Amino acid sequence: MVKPEAPARLPRLLQGIAGLALALMLAACQPADNGDARMPPNKGVASSLHLNALMDAAFGSRQQVVDTQQVRWRANLMLPPQQAARLPSSMLPASEPLAPLASMPEAGGAAPALLQRTAVAALPREVVRLNETQAVLVFESVPADQEGRPQREPTSKAALGTVFYTRVAESAGNSKPRTPGEEQWQVTSFQPYVDAIGYDGSAGDSQVYKLAPERYLLTFESESCWKGTCGSWLNGYLLQPDGLALALQSRLAGNNRTAYPDCDARLAPQRSGPRQPRRRVVIPAQAGVASAAASAAVQGHSCFDVRGEVHPISREAASADVSIRFKGLVSNARGDRQPVQETQLFRLNDGLYEQVNGGPNPVPEF
C-alpha cells in the first residue's frame, strides 16, 4: 500500500537533481584558485635566455610544434572568456560608433575573475633580464583547434602572459654539469593572463625600452585595415620585478589613402616651383552647378595619413618620460591640406603614463 506522502518524493528528487546541476554550473564559473591558474604547465630549467629554451622550460619541450611559419607551444591555460576586438567605426555600420579605449585599470589590478581552461597556441614575444638573478618572458596565446593550430580571425585578440625565471646559482650540489659561461634559469612564477589586445590573433609589433634600473616599457603596436582605412593602436606595459601592467594607451597611426579614389593624389607631396598665374574663366550657370556637384561628390570626405613614433626621454634619477612624435597630412572635405606635426609627452605617475605636454592626439578618430 502506497503511503499518501510518497508522490511528493519524485518532485523533491527532481528538485534535488536540478539543485545539484545548478551548483555544479555555478562552481564551474567560480574564480579558479590562484595556485591552479598560476601553475606553469612545466616548471623546468632553461639552459640560456634564448626564447625557445625559456618556452621549453615553461611549457615543456614535447609541446613544441614547428611548422613552416613559426614555432609555437601547445598548452591548456586558465583564461577569461575570449572577447572579439572592436573594429573602428569606419569598419562598422554607421549605427555602431567606435567605443572609446577601455579605462585604465589601477596599477597592479587583478585579472578578470571568471577563468576557464582553454586550449591555446603560445608564442614567445620578448625576454628581458631585469637584473643579475631575474628574467621575464612575455608570451602571447590564442585559442587553438584540436590539432593545436591557432584559430585566427580579424577580430581575434591575443592574450599576453608572463613567465618569471630565477638564475640557478652554481654550487657543488648541482648535479647537472655546465659548460663554461652557461647559465641556468628556473621557472619561478607564471601569469597566464595580463591583457588581451590586437587583431588577427596577434598582439602586433613589440618593442622594449629601458626606463630605469629594473624598469622597462614594453609596447605593442596593433594594426588593422578594412576597405582602404588602416589604423594602429599603441599599448604600453610597465615591466618590473613585480609583474607586467598596462601603463599607456594611444592611437598611434591612421590613414585612408585607398579608401577613396582621390585620397592618394590629395595626400601626395606637392611640387615646388613658381606659381602659374590663374586665368579667369567664365562658366555658364548650369555648367557651374554640375561642376560643383561633381566636385562635392568626389571631395565630400577627408583624407588623412598620420603616424606617430615612440621615443623614451631620459630623466636624471627618475624613470624616463615617453614622447610620441606625430607627423602627417590631413586633407579636409574642402580639399585644404593641413600638415600635422605634434609631440605629446607622457610622464610616469603612480604606475600610469599621464600626458604632461603637447596637444590632443592628431590621429583622426575613425
Could you describe the 3D structure shown?
The protein is mainly beta and 366 residues long. 14% of the residues lie in helices and 42% in strands. It has five helices and 15 strands. The strands form two sheets. It has an eight-stranded antiparallel beta sheet. The chain has a seven-stranded antiparallel beta sheet with strand order 1-7-6-5-4-3-2. A hairpin with a 2-residue loop joins strand 12 (303-315) and strand 13 (318-331). The model is unreliable at 1-35, 90-111 and 275-298 (pLDDT under 50).
Quick description:
This protein has 366 residues and is mostly beta strands. It is 14% helix and 42% strand.
**Between the first and last Cα atoms, what is the distance in angstroms?**
78 Å
Number of helices: 5
Strand residues, percent: 35-45%
Basic shape: globular
Number of strands: 15
Helicity range: 10-25%
Helix and strand sequence = HHEHEEEEEEEEEEHHEEEE
In the sheet with the most strands, the strands line up as 8-9-10-11-12-13-14-15
Low-pLDDT sequence parts: 1-35, 90-111, 275-298
Average pLDDT across residues? 80
